[in-house]
Write a structure and sequence with these properties.
By secondary structure, this protein is an alpha/beta fold. It folds into two domains: 15-170 and 358-392, Glycogen Phosphorylase B (Rossmann fold), CATH 3.40.50.2000; 181-355, Rossmann fold (3-Layer(aba) Sandwich). It contains 15 helices and 15 strands. Strands 3-2-1-4-5-6-7 form a seven-stranded parallel β-sheet, with helices on both faces. Strand 1 (15-18), helix 1 (23-38) and strand 2 (43-48) form a beta-alpha-beta unit. It is globular.
């Protein structure tokens, strides 16, 4: 292959990423953006104005962030969705006409439609990432019109026969790797030892899981007396969790947060998680090797969380508890097994490794760059682009 340097006076090609709407859609986009930045390629993120998006990008450096209106699709709120879609499309069209990115990557949320259509208008290649076991509406709608779809769960290609699919796993942020549990606990203000349970929903929290904890705290305390709990409540149930810490009959150490940007410390401190089964959560549990009890959200689109959880549980990488069975007499035996049965813990940790793709974000970025015919060295002061000869494109 013959390399040709782009003259220094020419603008470097850039990449746009639409990844807002929820933590599960945001964080894979952030992970991919960081990989492109390592190649010295300008990146711009398109997110929504939701608080979870704003918190998730608050620590980013050298990456442009654009906030767009965004509202989930539903027949009940169709006018609001159409208005936010049109406003998003027009704003993206204005911005992308200036930056003219070589590619748009979208992580499949309702917020990606406007950016993707605007990117097509300026001639950008389009790539999607489907995180869940059942493709979402936006991905199904766009599947035949994009250049490639990357995915996490196996056999997605059977649901998207018209698309070019490639399984490269679920991108997670770089900080998600096993940490020293004692250091993580001390960082969060927990005791350095003792069984530690992480309770959380998705980025918005999960009210049934939060209520289970609050209503059954004394039962959990009696069953596992030295238990300590990290409770990520979401924005609505923080007060109830904080109230547990003031009760004289509750003697457990409890750390309550509505949202935690440094989730790696929460995973690193925990022996077990009780949580939803969104794809990002599963990927982060796998990266951090945290055994879990998965409680799928029953109203997830097309039941994808139930299938996510089933596939992971069937592989031996988690336990599954349907939400209607979220009761103390079911959860306590499962918690004791995951906390104290070393053979069960070890087997589950071994299976979690099969759900972790440590280089997922890098492989997505490299595949896109290869497809675009752009090559360069990672983490160098002076980035040099090369292009394939036309005959090799």
């Amino acid at each position: 292959m013959e390399s040709q340097n782009i003259p220094s006076g020419l603008k470097k090609p850039s990449i746009a990423i639409a990844c807002g709407g929820s933590g599960g859609h945001l964080f894979p986009g952030v992970a991919i953006a960081e990989e492109f930045s390592d190649f010295g390629i300008p990146v711009e993120l398109f997110i929504t104005s939701k608080k979870v998006d704003e918190a998730g990008v608050s620590t980013l450096k050298d990456i442009k962030v654009h906030k767009l209106p965004g509202q989930p699709f539903s027949l009940r709120s169709l006018p609001g969705f159409l208005y936010s879609f049109l406003a998003s499309y027009l704003e993206c069209s204005r911005l992308l006409a200036i930056t003219r990115p070589k590619a748009m990557i979208a992580t499949g949320s309702f917020a990606c439609l406007g950016p993707v259509l605007a990117a097509r208008k300026v001639g950008a290649k389009i790539y999607l990432h489907e995180a869940n076991s059942i493709p979402g509406r936006a991905v199904r709608m766009l599947a035949s019109k994009v250049d490639r779809i990357y995915h996490f769960f196996p056999r997605i290609e059977k649901r998207l026969p018209e698309a070019s699919c490639l399984r490269l796993g679920m991108p997670v942020r770089r900080q998600f790797e096993p940490f020293d549990s004692m250091a993580c606990r001390l960082q969060l203000g927990l005791n350095s030892d003792g069984p530690t349970l992480l309770v959380m929903g998705g980025s918005q929290g999960a009210r049934p899981i939060n209520r289970f904890l609050v209503q059954n705290i004394l039962g959990l305390q009696a069953a596992i007396p030295n238990l300590q709990i990290i409770h990520i409540t979401g924005p609505f149930d923080l007060a109830d969790s904080l109230a547990l810490q003031k009760r004289k009959d509750v003697h457990l150490k409890i750390i309550s947060r509505p949202f935690l940007t440094e989730m790696e410390f929460a995973y690193g401190a925990s022996n077990v998680a009780l949580c939803r089964s969104g794809a990002s959560t599963i990927a982060e549990l796998a990266a951090m090797r945290v055994p879990s009890i998965l409680v799928p959200y029953p109203q997830s689109a097309d039941g994808h969380q139930a299938l996510n959880a089933k596939l992971v549980a069937d592989s031996g990488a988690a336990l599954l508890c349907p939400q209607h069975e979220l009761q103390l007499d079911r959860i306590v035996p499962q918690l004791k097994k995951l906390f104290f049965d070393q053979s069960v813990r070890s087997a589950m940790i071994d299976q979690l490794a099969h759900w972790h793709f440590p280089d997922s974000a890098a492989r997505v970025a490299e595949d896109i760059l290869s497809h675009l015919g752009i090559h360069g060295k990672r983490q160098t002061p002076e980035f040099v682009f090369t292009r394939k000869k036309a005959s090799e494109s």
